[in-house]
Design brief:
Length: 386
Amino acid sequence: MNSIFSAPTLAAIPPEDEALRVPVRAFLEKALRDVPPDVRSRSWLGFDADFSCALAREGWIGLTLPTQYGGGGRSGFARFVLLEELLAAGAPVSAHWIADRQTAPLILRFGTQAQRDFYVPKIVRGEAFFSIGMSEPDTGSDLAGVRTRAVLNERGWLLNGRKIWTTNAHRSHYMVALVRTSGTAKDRHKGLSQIVIDLSLPGISVRPIRDVAGDAHFCEVLFEDVQLSPDALVGAEGAGWEQVTAELAFERSGPERIYSSIVLADTWLSEMQRAQVDHPVVREVAGRIAGRLAVLRAMSLAVAARLDRGERPDLEAALVKDLGTSFEQQLPEWIADAIDAVPEAPASDALTRTLAYVTQIKPTFSLRGGTRQIMRGIIARGLGLR
């Protein structure tokens, strides 16, 4: 009997894509053998250009991109397997992450043929790292309040303004930025466009911002009379809002929204196993982690399946992002409580450092990719509640 209450069919990874797990895991075991867990816990915030280039040589950047641009031509399920292994191992993937995850798909969908031919092969080879210019000072998560402006002139686009929280801008070759090309901030979504910015151009100042853990991932970027060429525009002028919302579905749906604390969990579980700890609190926390992770993984995989079919699961991606980042933030609290409950098995120095780092950085989990309030607004609209 068909019913809206019937159990949905869960997305399953095809055997040919699941088989990718074996060579990826072998590669990572060798590459990360001597890297301590507190370093690996940085994972997709860990920047290592040489590591990214090594992945590119294996054909693991641009895995789903068309073969005509050097991509692997594989399914979204293959990419899901690859990302799971990278994140579970705590691989330093930040250098190529944004370009692979959203810049290349954006350019392929909205860019000109010349832009596709120029940028996408470079991304696949690990030769072009991108940052994202969305947020601005004093506007928070209100992307529609963009004030950075690009004005068309006889040489192309003249750019002025500021962007903030631009991950790895100080290490990137390019930025894709959401800017205003007409109207004012009061026009909200109207008059917004996306442009590609070569970060080596004159008039650009990049100021790294240190986070609470002492790392410098985020930057403030200032543009003062930066002259861009006419082909800097991505897609149609004034279509930036539609384009950026499509792009954010890629940013919010991946397994990085559930695995940010996974190295900490694995480190803690390994220590409990080595110490042969059999304590009810340890069992309860381990079960809670496994149960939540299984559900979130199934949800994330379902979103990956829809993206693979060319759909736009904005509502579903926002839901996974909201629930996933809540899980990521709760996990270090659960583990800290479990460590306190078992004094006969004190945490090692490595586990202590890893817990300290994740505890410090966890507030950012619900900020990146859109705040919790933004996600819940998207969910409410998608359900017809507002």
